[in-house]
Amino acid sequence: MSTENSVPFIRRCEILLIEPEETIEFDLESLVSGGDGLRRTLRWRALAPHLGEPVEIDAEQREMLGRISPSRWMAASEFAGDPRVLEQLMQKGLVVARDSGAHDAHRLSDERVRMAYWHPLGAVLHAFTRWDEVDAVKNMKDSHTETALEMLEYFGTPPAEAQRKIVDNAALIRLPEVPNNAFDELMHRRVTCRNFDASRPVPLSTFSKIIERALAAQTKVEVTEDMVFLKKNVPSGGGLHPMEAYFIVQNVEGLAPGLYHYRADAHALEPLPAPDVALEDFVMEAVAQQHWFRDAHVLIILAPRFDRTFWKYRQHAKGYRVVALEAGHISQTLYLSATDLGLGAFITGAINEKHLERALGLDPATQGAMAICGFGWRAQVMETAELDPLRKIWN
After folding, report:
1. Is-contact 228 308, C-beta < 8 A?
2. Residue 141, CA distances (Å) to 144, 151, 227 in order
3. Angle formed by the axes of helices 319-340 and 204-214, nearest 10°
4. Averaged pLDDT for residues 109-135
5. Number of Cβ within a 10 Å radius of residue 38
């Protein structure tokens, strides 16, 4: 059956970025014949966020994509392109059909992206920086970048630790030194924890207070029954607070180890089904095998609902950025709260997002894991290095 008869109406997917890619491989024949021993291959890749993986296309497919509207349904009969190439693009999911059961999954996925109001570049960034089954520790070992000296040897000298606009220090306007207070001392003790004491549970009251400070709604504003704003202790773009929190609880008094969803409006936990692997294995996969976080008492998956922010900031160039900023605000508040109560905290962006999406049932078109932070009692012995130059933690 021809494409025209089987697919009456078509359109291009909503968001599409096409990039030229060069791959370089060792080529013994090139080396023997006097070349540089490398074989370079150029190809075109289509990056469509609703697909989640790059798709290789040829020049003919690339040109056809430039002639298909992403907003208007076109009758296939009015399209002058090669039906064979059009069918290939539909199979790849770059062209979607309105009335074809064979390609409904691509159309529905594309529609979810459309309804989330992503800015195109933000959508591409989110979709194609997500990891799956990545071992960050192995990558560092393989690249010999585990220590500062190894990084210096591998990468060369880094940019200066502080930017200097003038050379003459005598021209600097020195600011007065103000005596430290309790808040300054708290800030100085804020040291990322990479050593946790798994033998000592966190009291439920301590857990609750840390979470209440960093994530809970302090009050809410009801504009109408279906338009409510929450007031939290962290700033949020447009006051929308899209950040959801999913907990991996490992060692808290009174809480069974497992997965939970946090309800910020009620300061309460919703128990979730257990993962299909041991909790420790689930944690290690989540943090990309960073074993120094394995024994953290609580890990918090920060998973923004992008559609809430993009409801206001539709296709906005800054939308994704303000959501990312919110994760940083929450992390710092969590750090300070945990430090204040004598615990250690951390945050990492080196996570396997797709692993978490599958486990938590997150649709990356509207929601996805952005970072993992956590806290717990610090161990008595430092086995993994922690940056504490002021020696406020490790004397």
Report:
1. no
2. 5, 11, 50
3. 150
4. 95
5. 11
| Residue of 304, 308, 305, 341 whose CA lies nearest to 213 | 341
Give the tokens for residue 292: 């120094």
> Tokens 């008869």 appear where?
5
Number of H helices, E strands in the chain: 14, 14
Nearest one of 173, 247, 150 to 208, comparing CA atoms: 247
Single pTM value for the model: 0.91
The residues facing 371 across adjacent strands are 302
Tell me the three state secondary structure of residue 42. Answer: strand
| Residue whose C-alpha is closest to residue 40's, from 57, 20, 56 | 20
**Nearest one of 339, 348, 333 to 384, comparing CA atoms:** 348
Contact 209, 341 (CB under 8 A): yes
In sequence order, what E strands does 188-334 have?
A: 219-224, 227-231, 243-249, 258-263, 268-271, 298-304
Tokens of 267: 């300061």
Interval 176-208: pLDDT, tens? 999 999 999 999 999 999 999 999 999 999 999
Q: Who has greater pLDDT, 77 or 13?
A: 13
Give phi and psi for 193, each to the nearest 5.
-95, 130
Element (H, E) at 374: strand 371-376
Are 26 and 37 a contacting pair, CB within 8 Å?
Answer: yes
226-254 pLDDT, tens digit per residue, is 999 999 999 999 999 999 999 999 999 99
Average pLDDT value for residue range 172-179: 94
Exposure of 18 in the CB half-sphere (CA atoms within 13 A): 14
